[in-house]
Amino acid sequence: MTSVEIIPLVGLVVMFVIATVFSINIGFLGFVGSFLAGAFLLGWDDKEILKAFPSSIVLTIVGVTFFFGMAKRNGTIDLLVNACVRAVRGRVSLIPWVLFVVASFLTALGTFSPAAVALVSSAAMSFAARARMSPLVMGIMTINGAHAGAFSPISVSGVLVRGIVEDAGMTIDPWYLFFASYGINTLLSVLTVAVYGIASRVRPLEYTATGTVRTVLPGAVPIAQKVEVTPVRVLTLALTGAILVLVLVFHLPISFIALAAGVVLAFTDLQGHSRSIADISWSTVLLVAGMITYISILEELGVIDDLADAALLIGAPLVVALVLCYVIGVASAFASSTALLAAIVPLSLPLLETGHLSVVGVVAALSIAATVVDVSPFSTNGALILANAQEVDRTDFYRQLLFNALIVVAVAPGITWAALVLVPSVFA
User: Fold this and answer.
1) Which of 9, 149, 165, 194 has the fewest CB neighbours in a 10 Å radius?
2) How do residues 335-387 score in pLDDT, each as one tens digit?
3) 327 contacts 373 by C-beta, under 8 angstroms
4) Are 165 and 171 in contact (CB under 8 A)?
5) Under a CB-based contact definition with an 8 Å cutoff, are residues 30 and 291 in contact?
């Protein structure tokens, strides 16, 4: 590699270090790096530098986070969560799975993963305290649920990954990506419940013959509290259903449909709807836009192709895919998963062009490996669980989260690679 390629590559590493140590949005760094590399290494003007700006993805993030921000503010999300909890009729052992399903439902509809965890984590930690359940297991199940639905055809992450692959002239089945993510995260959740159950980290509860809880914390309030069904909440649910039909059946763009649904909801709260603009995930908009723009500069300089060629020198494509899964998994435990997806997925494309491995299998493995490790307390999702924990020693709980994250980092990328890359290759 030449100095022209090494300098911006070092710059990418520096960006991740700065963003991790100083909590500066890496999107800002990406835009600055794009200008420096584009202007001084390629001689581009601002229009050429921004030609790869992901306007479609940005509009998608704005649309879905605006709509679901309003759904949260008008109480529709609380209505859904409480309805699901009431459905288990007091069977506390099922509550972690209810939270898993609720979080996955939110992200599958388009809610960004950290936003879904933020919406559900407060209830999850409250349930853990009331029902004397392990807050660690409740938190992990919430995060795994959010990851399970995070790659649906209309989700932010799903749109991002498909966009990167399709821009390279390849195609992937969006439903395969979604079900692969749901399956792997369900498997990890089963292992979580089993392992921590055996380790007695989940406190035993007394049950009646029907399976309902007989003992709870003294003075605890009911686990599921009634949330009133109002016309606005009914409208929000109807609009959610309309979004699903228009996007999945008629293949209309989720960006414009979600924005239109948000505008309709705005008329139900003309004075307060402007507050929902703050609910738009602007930090994610900046992160995705800045990173994709910078990666496009690296591609133009030939950095991505050279790195991919170097990776291919490792030998067997299966080994290269395993290495990439662990690289993105380890790095994602300390940095933004979305940013790493924008950086690592393009790196795998030359490997996929050899035709030795399944495109959707490798892309799904990398995507899932990047997200399943977000149980780390250094990640946004892990930090939300830590912040919402109740009646626990936070220092001890932090150590539990960190220990669990180390196990996931060591095991999950390998499981993902084996299930989605190795096995399909063996039976191909």
Assistant:
1) 194
2) 667 777 877 788 787 777 777 788 888 899 998 998 888 887 767 788 778 77
3) no
4) yes
5) yes
Write down how long the chain is. 428
Tokens describing residue 71? 């759904």
> Is the four-CA dihedral 12, 15, 17, 20 of positive or negative sign?
negative
Q: What is the pTM of this model?
A: 0.70
Number of Cβ within 10 Å of residue 314's Cβ equals 12
Longest dimension (CA), the chain: 75
φ/ψ region of 112 (left if φ > 0, alpha if ψ in -120 to 50, else beta) reads beta
Model pLDDT, residue 211:
34
DSSP letter (8 states) at residue 418: I
State which amino acid sits at residue 342: A
- CB within 8 Å of 28: residues ≥ 6 apart: 286, 290
User: Helix, strand, or coil here: 213?
Assistant: strand
Q: Percent of the chain at pLDDT above 70?
A: 89
Angstrom distance (rounded) from CA 417 to CA 321: 7
How would you label 119-144 residue by residue, b for 16+ Cβ within 10 Å and e otherwise? bbbebbbbbbbbbbbbbbbbbbbbbb
Cα–Cα dist 69/272, whole Å: 12
Structure tokens at 230: 């109002």
Helical (H) or strand (E) element with 290: helix 282-301
Q: Label residue 89 exposed, middle or buried (CB < 10 Å: 0-12, 13-18, 19+).
A: exposed
Residue holding tokens 């590559």?
Answer: 9
